[in-house]
Amino acid sequence: MNQHEIIKWGVLSTANIGVKLVIPAMQNGEHSQIEAIASRNLKKAQDTADLLGIPKAYGSYEELLAAPDIQAIYIPLPNHMHYTWIKKCIEAGKHVLCEKPLLLESSQIAELKELQETSGLIIGEAFMVLHQTRWQRVRELVQSGSLGKFISGQSVFSYFNTDSANIRNISEYGGGGIYDIGCYPTVLSRFVLGEEPIRVSAFVENDPDFGVDRLASVILQYPSGPVTFTVATQMVPFQYFQFFGDQKMVEVNIPFNTPDFRAMTIKVNSGDIHELPQVAESFSPENHYTKQGDAFSRAILFNETFSGSLENAEKNMKVLEAILKSAKEGRWVEV
Question: Domain 133-289+317-334 - what CATH class?
Answer without folding.
Answer: alpha beta
